[in-house]
Amino acid sequence: MSTHLPRRLLSLYVGLALYGISSGLLVRAGLGLQPWGVLDQGIARHTGLSIGEASIIVGALVLLLWIPLRERPGLGTLSNVLAIGVFMDTTLAVVPDVRGLLAQVPLAAAAIVCNGAATGLYISARFGSGPRDGLMTGLHRATGRSVRLVRTSLEAAVVATGFLLGGSLGVGTALYALAIGPLAQFFLRVFALPEPARAVAAPAGPGPKAPSTCACAPSRTAAPRDRAILPG
After folding, report:
1. DSSP letter string over 182-218?
2. 0.85 surpassed by pTM
3. Is the N or the C terminus of the chain less surrounded, counting Cβ atoms within 10 Å?
4. Could you read off the pLDDT of 1-36 as tens digits, one per residue?
5. By the 8 A CB rule, do 143 and 53 touch?
């Protein structure tokens, strides 16, 4: 796996940057945010923080919930907490608000597709799940409930809280919820990195002598599992 380390690092940080950029574009589209974005925006409106700063703080607080769930963070987990908020705020600083449905709808659609691509990039790097994904899988293991039920319950609570705090909930939120799963699954396959080759063990016992050179299985592309997962 070490031979693919530079490529994995590139996949991780390009993915996190694109995730932050696409999240910022979704804010500028003004048609509603992704579930955790609704919460981040609601918190930002009541605290004076930027939405990116709110995202960083929420991510850090969610990471603390990993402790009783015995989840282990990786490089991707810690990078996720910091990078997405930074790139979101950078995008909001340079991209103005968009007015009119003829501009808002294409921007929101492009942002959702880019978000799906970002998810495929940073998850395929295999440096650990984001804090929100880790919370979901940790609760799944702790409660025995299905991933789908845990995910749906978490996001419903997050959206409701964010909306009550003034976060943007709209058609963009619904489109994101419907499209992000298939998009993430598609891009996970597109950006899947090859696994390292594994040596084939020579058969034991009498028989023809094995060749002196090592026979290795050809590298293959890792296909992601079909499971409900969201970035974050």
Report:
1. HHHHHHHHHSPPBPPP-BPPPPPSSSSPPPSSPPBPP
2. no
3. N
4. 456 899 999 999 999 999 999 999 999 999 999 999
5. no
The one-letter amino acid code at 73 reads P
DSSP string, 84-115: HHHHHHHHHHHS----SHHHHHHHHHHHHHHH
pLDDT in tens, 179-191: 998 999 899 899 9
Distance CA(229)–CA(183), nearest Å, equals: 11
- Two tokens, residue 29: 């589209």
The counts of H helices and E strands in the chain are: 9, 0
Residues forming a β-bridge with 221: 194
3 state SS of 170:
coil
- Cβ-contact 26, 172 below 8 angstroms: yes
Q: Considering only CA atoms, which of 42, 33, 64 is closest in space to residue 132?
A: 64
Q: How far is CA 175 from CA 32, 35, 111, 113, 181, in A?
A: 9, 11, 11, 11, 11
